[in-house]
Amino acid sequence: MNIVIISGLSGAGKSTAASAFEDIGYFTVENVPVEFFSPIIEKLKDQSIDKLALVIDIRSVRGKPSLVKQFLNEIELMKQKYDVNILFLAADRNVLIERFALTRRLHPLSKGKGFSIDALLRREEEILSPIKAISRVIDTTNFSVRKLRSYIIQLFSTEGLIFILESFGFKFGVPRDVDMIFDARILNNPFYDENLRALSGLDKAVREFLTKDEYTSWFVQHITRFILISAPR
Questions:
Q1: Nearest-CA neighbor of 128 among 68, 74, 53?
Q2: Class of domain 2-156
Q3: Is residue 233's pLDDT more than 70?
Q4: Fewer CB within 10 A of the end CB, N or C, for the chain?
């Protein structure tokens, strides 16, 4: 089983990272209490799940250094049995404070005690520092949600990007579930050739009609170049 542990500071993007892992085929569980860490893994292994992402954060250890120590012991045992990667998401404290102000969410350690976000983040950093010390740290200070998601997918996806190409007629409406649309009406249209009108792009005669025009090759090259530049972002 391939296991990814996602930890980090509140507001640093753990939920975004978990969502990205889900998109590349990982079974994802957030906010796992430390006591359930090993039982969950063993239970899911029995369900033939081979890729698992678990979010372990300040809520998982309930702000207790003793539970952090317990988690570290659990990790050492898991490493003997499984392929384990540990990520720790962090960011500049001022950026995290801005994110809290934007979302108006309470810090998990607040518990209505009236501490400032800055003080709570400092405490969180202190408690989670042993986990950070054994992790691959990802600084999300300058990451947008989209950039973080893309970064995670590039790091861990074994399949690469998946492209689905779809042709359509504008008179029937533009497909709604697409990221990019390229208008090919600037190319010669085989519809106006009576011998080709009843055929489709799957037919050799139509392909030959299009490829004999040098402009088609130029058009395809530029679309390909644009996709290679923009899609990974």
A1: 68
A2: alpha beta
A3: no
A4: C
